[in-house]
From TrEMBL:
Annotated organism of origin: Paraphaeosphaeria sporulosa
Pfam families per the UniProt record, alphabetical: Mito_carr (PF00153)
Main location (coarse class): membrane
Solcar repeats by residue range: 59-147, 154-248, 258-398
One BP term from GO: magnesium ion export from mitochondrion
The name this protein goes by in its record: Mitochondrial carrier protein
Compartments in which it is found: Membrane
SUPFAM superfamilies: Mitochondrial carrier
Coiled-coil residue windows: none
Keyword annotations: Membrane, Mitochondrion, Mitochondrion inner membrane, Repeat, Transmembrane, Transmembrane helix, Transport
Length: 405
């Protein structure tokens, strides 16, 4: 009987008994496991999008470089005329200044000098420098940001630091074009009868040759430190604001696709805030790059002025209309546009130090002198950043969907 019972367990007539018993034994355990909530299924769309956004949705470097170059250049070209207005206000050597409010300056330049040679003076070096500079910037920004995030650095710190590193990479290309652009913007048209800036270049090539011949090749890098002082904090603040604002917008929308209105709002507000905050550094940069050799306080006859048509205008001054062999710097207007100051005078910005330049401007012009041109700069950086960053995101999506490069 015992052997008979035992044989029944191994007989072919009941082959599934062990399997059935095993399934019955596992059933309570499997039910217990199934009762545990599936954390992957219960993740919110915001959490899933954030994970994808930080870890996986990384565009190829070629896409980032092309999208950044096209977006940055488009933004710069779109707002070049307003940048000219800002440069005229910041670099105007006349006392009292010819250019006051933003609207008055824009209309005056357009009416007297036209569009291509007035408001869009210096557009050629601006185009070249903008495209090459933004290509270098966005490629470096993406690389450094990913490197820091992958090594455990907080995203907010990574965004800020990546902006600094990216500007360091772009500066060697950007600064020479900025010097040429700024001087041509301040000059306006060749033989300008309406405004005497002290410069009179025939073209961009003539400006580069003249600067290298008369001031040395190093003059093309005038204001290099001042440009870094302005652009490093600007880019760091701009991208820190932008990335954080986009994260808030994603949480608000519940998706990584925040829509065009919020894309424009986040990009424009980030650029505008960073531009306003860094205006004093931009004022110093503009004045260092546009200062030139001139005479001391001794008056000179009007016949020695380099631009005879402008020597008879009410805005010409002896210190800005003739040259001397003595290497001193051009007097800078101490009156701020749209601001009433104690008195009009001239302060010589005879230093390449940003700190000393800021101190000198503040001592002679007050706080409003440090924020000269803040109106056009705030509008310019806001629109330019909005255009650049929205195009950047749009082009990245286009490249990805169409498998470009």
């Amino acid at each position: 009987m015992v052997f008979g019972s035992a044989s029944n367990w191994f007989s072919p007539t009941n082959p599934n008994k062990l399997v059935e018993d095993g399934q019955r034994a596992r059933k309570p355990a499997m039910e217990g496991i199934r009762s545990v909530p599936d954390m992957r299924q219960e993740r919110t769309p915001q959490e899933a999008d954030a994970e994808i956004d930080h870890e996986m949705a990384r565009p190829p470097y070629v896409h980032a470089i092309l999208a950044g170059g096209i977006g940055g250049t488009t933004g710069d070209m779109l707002m070049h005329s307003l940048d000219t207005v800002k440069t005229r206000q910041q670099g105007d050597p006349h006392m009292p200044p010819k250019y006051t409010s933003m609207g008055n300056t824009y209309y005056t330049i357009w009416r007297q000098e036209g569009l291509s040679r007035g408001l869009y003076g210096g557009v050629q070096p601006a185009f070249v420098g903008s495209f090459l500079g933004t290509c270098a910037f966005f490629g470096t920004y993406e690389w450094s940001k990913r490197l820091m995030i992958d090594n455990g650095i907080a995203p907010s710190v990574s965004y800020f630091t990546a902006g600094l590193v990216a500007d360091l990479a772009a500066a060697p290309v950007y600064v020479p074009s900025e010097v040429l652009k700024t001087r041509l913007q301040l000059q306006g048209r060749h033989n300008n009868p309406y405004f005497n800036s002290g410069y009179n270049y025939r073209s961009t090539i003539d400006a580069a040759r003249t600067i290298a011949r008369t001031e040395g090749f190093g003059a093309l890098f005038y204001g290099y430190k001042a440009t870094l002082w302005r652009d490093l904090p600007f880019s760091a603040l701009q991208f820190a604001f932008y990335e954080e604002e986009r994260e808030l917008a994603k949480k608000y929308m519940g998706s990584s696709n925040i829509g065009l209105p919020l894309e424009i709002l986040t990009a424009a507000s980030a650029g505008g805030m960073a531009g306003v905050i860094t205006t004093p550094l931009d004022v110093v940069k503009t004045r260092i790059q546009t200062q030139q050799p001139s005479t001391s306080s001794a008056p000179a006859p009007a016949s020695t002025a380099p631009l005879s048509p402008s020597s008879t205008t009410k805005h010409s001054t002896p210190s800005a209309s003739h040259k001397s062999s003595a290497p001193s710097n051009r007097p800078i207007s101490t009156s701020s546009p749209s601001t009433t100051l104690k008195a009009h005078g001239a302060a010589t910005l005879d230093t390449s130090s940003v700190i000393r330049g800021l101190r000198l401007i503040y001592q002679t012009e007050g706080i409003w002198g440090c924020f000269r041109g803040v109106g056009p700069r705030g509008v310019w950086t806001s629109v330019q950043s909005g255009t650049m960053l929205v195009l950047y995101q749009t082009l990245l999506k286009y490249f990805e969907q169409n498998a470009v490069v």
